[in-house]
Design a protein that fits this description.
The protein is mainly α. The chain is built from 19 helices and 6 strands. The strands form 2 sheets. The chain has a 3-stranded antiparallel sheet. The structure holds s-citryldethia Coenzyme A.
Length: 434
């Protein structure tokens, strides 16, 4: 296999080193390109551009493979928990009993918000989107920890990490309660991570929420499956902000904003809205499929397609199976699940989708599972953000630990006006009336 690539331009041949990864994926290192050729590369959407070397997550999009620190997602989904997987992603190894207990204790010690944070919640209108509240309140929370604002201090990483992972859950639950005019429910130190979140979301001051094991397990699995996904849009955003040496909470707040977009983490909410639209219209799905294939319709089959997976997203397979067993355990059904299954069957036999290698991604079934758990649609992307926090933190740490880390500052090719002159306003002609 070549360990170097040759590029010829202006009659000269330049040699560029080739970097090979653990799974034999290769990257052409262009660090010297501009110095030697005066050229930069262009890559719309960064579809062919690696921004970093990373040891956290491996994806093989053609084969539908996903591994956290080398462990297949299927094994973690089957045998692990969200918090154990979060530890694996952040610290690079599965925790021993003692390590896991210490991590769990740190999460419990840091689960409460500073009491003055409640004044910030008061300031949001009840119609505020929970993702807007989440990104704002992550930054607001950091103001109560001056140690966080100073320069990077690895000795404080564990407590900042535990605080962020624990509090993002409390902020999410508080924002939901506030937006529904409900009294906030404080975390219970006796509850584990996911059970505590459900308690804070759905208990009342006079009535404890009944924690069904199947429901707790289903939500914990959703968090686990979202925990990291290499250089996706929001994680790349976190690395971009971390490269300026911003603090962990600022990076996470930026990640929340990137995740919110309907083409990214907002897709789980968009899938349910799409399925509800189909259900209301009485369409059996075939009309929507045709619209999704028509570029002029402005519609896409949300939850389908992926920049990296050109095969079935392994997380979608796991969620689909978990959906079936959850519905059986709860003795419930959902017409939206049947519609989703019809859409999937139709798309997977339609040349438009097959030619473009468009398969269900993590968002296609996750919303249906969250509905069954009782999570309101407007909270779906918040659930995604809670799950993705360990991945963002691990990528933040990779940047901070890298002695050669440089600020991310892409180049561009300028296509604006050539040299121009300032014209005083009195000499500027009004455009002729159309
Ligand atoms: C996530 O990157 C990650 O890892 C993200 C994620 C993670 O864990 O962090 O996996 C989570 O964000 C999953 C993706 C959720 N988004 C959606 O489900 C929204 C619907 N999907 C798409 O908009 C789209 O597939 C993307 C955004 C996911 C990927 O976009 P790309 O790689 O830029 O692909 P593209 O838009 O260039 O599409 C290629 C072709 C186009 O048609 P042609 O111009 O070739 O004729 O496929 C078509 C697109 O129009 N296409 C779709 C489609 N997705 C792509 N057509 C209809 N329905 C779709 N869903």
């Amino acid at each position: 296999m070549n360990t170097a690539a040759k590029l010829e331009i202006d009659g000269k041949v330049h040699t560029l080193p080739v970097v090979e990864g653990t799974e034999q994926e290769r990257g052409i290192d262009i660090a010297t390109l501009r110095t030697h050729t005066g050229c930069i590369t262009l890559d719309d959407g960064y579809g062919n551009t690696g921004s970093c070397l990373s040891k956290i997550t491996f994806i093989d999009g053609e084969k539908g493979v996903l591994r956290y620190r080398g462990i297949p997602i299927e094994e973690l989904a089957q045998q692990s928990s969200f918090i154990e997987t979060a530890y694996l992603i952040i610290y690079g190894h599965l925790p021993t009993r003692r390590e896991l207990q210490h991590f769990s204790d740190l999460l419990t010690q840091n689960e409460n918000l500073h009491e003055d944070m409640k004044y910030h919640f008061e300031g949001f209108p009840s119609t505020a989107h929970p993702m807007a509240i989440l990104s704002s309140m992550i930054n607001a929370s950091s103001c109560f920890y001056p140690g966080l604002m100073g320069r990077w201090n690895p000795a404080r990483f564990d407590v900042h990490t535990a605080r962020l992972i624990s509090q993002v859950r409390t902020i999410a639950a508080f924002s939901y309660r506030k937006s529904h005019g409900l009294p906030v429910i404080y975390p219970k130190p006796t509850h584990k991570y996911t059970a505590n979140f459900l308690h804070m979301m759905f208990s009342e001051p006079y009535l404890e929420y009944e924690l069904k094991p199947e429901v707790v397990r289903a939500l914990d699995l959703i968090f686990l499956l979202h925990a990291d996904h290499e250089q996706n849009c929001s994680t790349a955003t976190v690395r971009m902000v971390a490269s300026s040496q911003a603090n962990l909470f600022a990076c996470a707040a930026a990640g929340v904003c990137a995740l919110w977009g309907p083409l990214h983490g907002g897709a789980n909410q968009a899938v349910i809205e799409m399925l509800e639209e189909i259900h209301r219209s009485g369409d059996d799905g075939s009309r929507f499929i045709e619209a999704a294939k028509d570029k002029n319709s402005g519609k896409r089959l949300m939850g389908f397609g992926h920049r990296v997976y050109k095969n079935y997203d392994p997380r979608a397979k796991i969620i689909k199976q978990a959906c079936d067993s959850l519905f059986r355990a709860l003795h419930v059904s959902d017409p939206l699940l049947e519609i989703a299954q019809r859409l999937e069957a139709a798309a997977l036999h339609d040349s438009y989708f097959l030619e473009r290698k468009l398969y269900p991604n993590v968002d296609f079934y996750s919303g249906i599972m969250m509905r069954a758990v009782g999570i309101p649609t407007e909270m779906f992307t918040v659930i995604f953000a809670i799950g993705r926090m360990p991945g963002w933190i691990a990528n933040f740490r990779e940047i901070m630990d890298d002695p050669h880390s440089r600020i991310y500052r892409p180049r561009q090719v300028y296509t604006g006006p050539a040299l121009n002159r300032y014209v005083p306003i009195e000499d500027r002609a009004e455009p002729a009336k159309a």
